[in-house]
Amino acid sequence: MLKVRVPYENVFGKMCIALTLGCxxxxxxxxxxxxxxxxxxxxxxxxxVSAEDMTAIVxxxxxxxxFIGGDSAGVSGMNLSVRADSKVFHNGGYLFGFTTSFRMGxxxxxxxxxxxxxxxxxxxxxxxxxxALRDCLKSGGWARKEDEQELGGTFLVGVRGRLFxxxxxxxxxxxxxxxxxxxxxxxxxxxxxxxTGRTGLKPAARIRVALGAAERFSAGVRGPFLCMALRKKxxxxxxx
Length: 240
Hints:
Oligomer: single chain
Strand content: 25-35%
Largest sheet: 5 strands, antiparallel
Radius of gyration: 18 Å
Order of helices and strands: HEEEEEEHHEEEEEEHHEE
Number of strands: 14
Helix content: 25-40%
Shape: globular
């Protein structure tokens, strides 16, 4: 009988392997330390796997404002806690919503001094912003190397009316649809955002519908949800 090694955290998501191939799935130990991370389970060789296994962060740009909402789940293996420290926050004219790790989020929130945007915004985000981010994560002991590639984490960021997704290889993505989602609930959230695109719902309401869909269909997403808006001139607003 074929044996497939599957991380303990992914046993439910990978059970289809056993059903399809008729294989055994020995479980690997869940990482110690409790539910302190939003992501970063490990594979059979102890390496971090995809940083998209827990959490739902949803963003939407509309008419010069950026809206980002997030859940409150802190997940480690099969353990989940509801965190009071938010994954969505404002820092220096930017609006952030993070996945990957609460430690990474704390560094971005309290240690990062984001540079003021200038010139072409896409070029600026891919260069000056990422350089500042890398320095922050390295000095805070979070950035890591894998196969000689420097890796960080995944988050959404809004600035000057634009929404970007920064991934763990430091690529900066800008979605043509004007909305984005990261974390394990991203596909359910994106489907909900698409479906509400012509309903007349306000941006904050669409984000809450998307987060509700992610919670409904993903075991790694949990309320309460928090949504913030970044208005023109960098003014941040907490939304009900």
